[in-house]
Specification:
Shape: globular
Number of domains: 2
Largest sheet: 8 strands, mixed
Number of helices: 16
Order of helices and strands: EEEEEHEEHHEHHHHEEEHHHHHEHHHEH
Strand content: 15-25%
CATH architecture of the largest domain: 2-Layer Sandwich
CATH topology of the largest domain: Nucleotidyltransferase, domain 5
Radius of gyration: 21 Å
Oligomer: single chain
Distance between the termini: 16 Å
Length: 400
């Protein structure tokens, strides 16, 4: 292999990666994908080739205790696996692009400074996304680092969908609804013409349901509204985040309970949502298998909010032609899909139980007015496509 591009999706305790190679006479193709998990506790790296064969499955040393060390471990493995090859670029998922970055960009010191300013708007993600950029630049200096933003896909929504109803003097500095999970939604929009051509150009609600959860209303493959807003706290109930709550509750935490800003941030980002309601877990699999009343309530609330927001976005679209489930819960939990579809049956959804149990891809009955689909997302591939276009590294040979 002569040239390769690397895609990184860094979190607090994991680092997902994907290697795209470009042999001399061929276009780009996926060479390997994997992740380093358990960073800071019991780090382990696993990667598979494009054929599904395991390329590495190894425990890492205790020195891999942060994202920087994980990057170093990955770089060492890449050097042993692809020694002599040239890295053309590294694409990164960055959750928040703020008002200045509506498209992917090559990272410069000025760009990095601006992205660090956005950390308070995405404290669960932004610090780790940016640390990965800095570590990659340190390990392979001079190789372009490309930031791809979860907010980009939603830019260009109608003004009424972006506005935050606060004094305009406050909003002029970038206080608006941005939306997130954009790389996932953008990938789904690109896949629908092949997977579900009958709805690709129509009115579609995509449900990205995972530890972070949101819905996006699409018309002709473009985002027109979403449940996430200024930060990744709005909309649906999530693993540890509450989703939409009365702002007065936040005032109560400050004024009546006397909590500090940091304490309130911790509650909202790390102790609420499914974990807060159930008091046992933020993992939907644990909750579905539990008989604890709090676990049942957490699942009920998750489904209730998802169906409620589906109705709201259907109103925005003036009706829907399709509903698409994706991400960890959306792709893997037949029970959650079933319950949301039954709660949304008034929209014209008729679920095919057998198809739902086998994960579709189409899980609605043939005569259903609204078709329902399960489509696996691929944020890493979307990042690779953006990086290839931005750097023009694919040239006439084609991109990923």
């Amino acid at each position: 292999m002569d040239d390769y591009g690397l895609v990184l999706n860094a979190g607090s305790s994991s680092l997902k990666f994907c290697v795209f190679c470009r042999p001399k006479t061929e276009g780009w193709r996926v060479e390997a994908a994997g992740q380093i998990e358990g960073i800071g506790t019991a780090p382990k790296m696993k990667a598979k080739g494009a054929d599904g064969n395991i390329l590495t499955d190894q425990k890492l040393g205790s020195e891999v205790n942060d994202g920087r060390q994980a990057i170093m471990a990955l770089a060492a493995w890449l050097r042993s696996a692809y020694g002599g090859s040239r890295v053309l670029g590294v694409g990164h998922r960055v959750v928040h692009g703020g008002p200045k970055f509506a498209q992917p960009v090559v990272v410069t010191p000025a760009v990095l400074t601006e992205l660090h300013r956005l950390t308070p708007l995405a404290p669960l993600h932004q610090p780790y996304n940016l640390a990965a950029i800095e570590a990659a630049e340190e390990r392979i200096p001079g190789v372009p680092q490309i930031a791809c933003f979860d907010t980009s896909f939603h830019r260009g929504q109608p003004e009424v969908a972006e506005v935050v109803p606060l004094p305009r003097s406050i909003c002029r500095d970038g206080v608006q609804r941005y939306g997130f999970h954009g790389l996932s939604y953008e990938y789904i929009a690109s896949a629908l013409p092949e997977v579900a051509p009958e709805i690709a150009g129509g009115r579609v609600i995509v449900a990205h349901l995972g530890s972070g959860a949101s819905l996006c209303a699409m018309k002709a493959g473009k985002s027109v509204d979403s449940t996430l807003g200024f930060t990744a706290l709005d909309g649906l109930c999530m693993g540890t985040r509450p989703g939409s709550i009365d702002p007065g509750v936040v005032l109560y935490l400050f004024q009546n309970l006397g909590l500090s800003a940091k304490e309130v941030e911790t509650i909202l980002y790390k102790k609420s949502g499914l974990l807060g309601i159930s008091e046992i877990s933020n993992d939907m699999r644990d909750l579905l298998s539990s008989d604890v009343p709090g676990a049942r309530l957490a699942v009920d609330y998750f489904v209730y909010q998802a169906a409620k927001h589906c109705g709201a976005l259907a109103a925005v679209l003036g009706g829907i032609d399709g509903l698409v489930f994706t991400a960890g819960i959306g792709e893997n939990s037949a029970e959650i899909r079933r319950r949301i579809c039954h709660s949304s049956a008034w929209l014209g959804i008729e679920l095919d139980e057998e198809a739902n149990n086998r994960r579709g891809p189409r899980i609605s009955k043939p005569g259903s007015k609204v078709s329902v689909w399960v489509v696996q997302t691929n944020e890493e591939l979307m990042i690779a496509r953006h990086a290839a276009r931005l750097l023009s590294i694919a040239g006439k040979r084609g991109g990923p």
